[in-house]
Specification:
Blueprint lengths: L1 H166 L4 H135 L7 H23 L5 H4 L5 E2 L8 E2 L3 H7 L1 H7 L6 E8 L3 E2 L14 H7 L4 E2 L3 H8 L5 E8 L5 E13 L2 E11 L1
Helix pairs in contact: 1-2
């Protein structure tokens, strides 16, 4: 009986153990599945976050474009206002100029008959001067005749005096007459001479007056022609001013139309701007919530792995934690051997490398990581064909020593340098900072890596903290394709 009971108890115990073992096995399989599902969830969330990043970038770009458009529209409206003001000034000025030109034309038209009369008078004066010259010529001839007669009379008087002297007392009375005739002849001759002199002077004056009259005639003719041309020019100016006024009126009409249109679309711009800003704010809020979901999914993956779940990341986790521990021991050994002081190992003051673009910097410990880390980091790349890089970062994101493929000497092209010269750089993005600051045994992050040309690849960034004598120096990052 007892044997039967003992046998039954043994069978029951074995059965319970099998059930417990089965439950544990099913639990582990659930953890494995949960770990895989959490990893996939992280993938999807990061993918959505990446897409939302693109939408956010587009939204911000649209906001910037809208801001530029609004600014440009305001500038157009402001310029249109200035055009309207200028057109108003032009219209006012053209009215004033038109009035002035009308007055000037009136004065020119009023003076033209006087100038024409003066030209005609000067032309007639020349003819009258010719007549005077002709009359003076006749006077000269008559005076010459008088002079000739006076000379003949003088000769006759002399002869009479001679004959009177011969007659004696009988000719004495005739002699007196002859003397008077002789005196009259002399006075006549003198008067004729004076007349000749006056006529000569008049002749000279007439010649000069004729010359001056000719010049005056040319001048007056030029004045008349210039007045005519001036009148014609002023009339053209008046027409041009009137045309300018008409154009100014057209400009004012167009400016008013633009102002009316601007007043119409300004509220629309304001509504669009408010809507775009609200949308951008909502997108930014969604991004922030997705960032929290990414952190939550990463914590979920780490929690399931830490609880015993297995995943494709397990061997990567084991490798990176072991390598991070090795790096910590190498640092501790270097301090112990006096190769570097502890304060220099934890110094976060960096010296820029002159001429580097993008900027590279040096730290007091860079020479040490260049010697210690390459063998470990290069070996990690052989773990899986999906491995992209393996590099240690100090707290704050400084990456002193990178893989050889990313540690080329810089050249003149900053774009090429950005892709190929990634050592001695500070990577303070979200993934880089979290990896450098993490103190948990390991940290798995999922992110989209820009491969250029709009091509993004989903990657995992696995990191483990590097501890030196209980102090957190940074972390070792191992990035591989999802």
């Amino acid at each position: 009986m007892q044997s039967t009971l003992s046998s039954d108890n043994s069978l029951a115990g074995a059965s319970q153990l099998r059930r417990r073992t089965d439950r544990q096995g099913r639990g582990l399989r659930h953890f494995d599945r949960l770990s895989v599902d959490a990893s996939k969830l992280g993938f999807e969330i990061v993918e959505i976050s990446g897409m939302l990043d693109g939408v956010d970038a587009d939204s911000r770009s649209q906001l910037a474009s809208l801001s530029k458009l609004k600014s440009g529209a305001n500038k157009v409206l402001d310029a249109n206002r200035q055009v309207g003001e200028a057109a108003t000034r032009v219209r006012t000025q053209t009215e004033s100029s038109r009035t002035t030109l009308e007055e000037l034309l009136t004065e020119i038209r009023r003076s033209e008959p006087f100038i024409l009369d003066l030209a005609n008078w000067v032309g007639g004066l020349d003819a009258r001067i010719d007549q005077v010259a002709t009359m003076l010529a006749e006077v000269r001839k008559s005076n010459a005749l008088v002079t000739s007669i006076a000379n003949q009379v003088n000769i006759l008087a002399i002869n009479a005096k001679i004959e009177a002297a011969r007659a004696g007392d009988a000719g004495r009375g005739f002699a007196v007459v002859a003397e008077e005739v002789n005196a009259l002849s002399r006075r006549t001759s003198q008067a004729a001479n004076r007349i000749s002199g006056q006529v000569a002077s008049l002749d000279n004056w007439i010649t000069e007056l004729s010359s001056e009259t000719g010049r005056y005639g040319t001048t007056v003719s030029g004045v008349h022609e210039g007045t005519t041309r001036t009148r014609e020019s002023v009339e053209k100016m008046r027409v041009a001013v009137e045309d300018t006024g008409a154009v100014a009126e057209d400009i004012l009409t167009s400016a008013d139309a633009v102002k009316t249109a601007g007043d119409g679309f300004r509220p629309s711009f304001a509504r669009i701007d408010e809507g775009a800003a609200d949308t951008a704010g909502r997108i930014a809020g969604a991004r922030d919530r997705l960032e929290a979901l990414i952190d939550l999914s990463e914590s979920l993956v780490q929690g399931t792995v830490a609880a015993g779940g297995t995943s494709d990341d397990s061997r990567f986790i084991q490798r990176v934690t072991e390598d991070a521990a090795t790096m910590g021991r190498l640092f501790q050994q270097a301090i112990a051997e006096g190769e570097i002081a502890e304060r220099d190992l934890f110094d976060r003051h960096y010296t820029p490398i002159a001429g580097s673009q993008p900027e590279q910097v040096m730290a007091p410990f860079t020479y040490l990581t260049d010697r210690l880390f390459p063998p470990i980091q290069e070996s990690a790349l052989e773990l899986d064909t999906r491995d992209v890089f393996c590099a240690a970062v100090a707290t704050g994101g400084y990456l002193p020593t990178h893989n050889r493929r990313f540690s080329k000497p810089q050249g003149p092209d900053p774009v090429w340098n950005t892709a190929n010269c990634r050592n001695r750089r500070i990577f303070d993005d979200r993934v880089g900072l979290k990896a450098s600051r993490n103190t948990d045994p390991f940290l798995i992050q999922v992110y989209r890596r820009d491969m250029g040309g709009g091509d993004f690849r989903m990657m995992k960034d696995l990191s483990a903290p590097i501890m030196v004598g209980g102090r957190h120096w940074g972390g070792l990052r191992l990035a591989y394709l999802f």
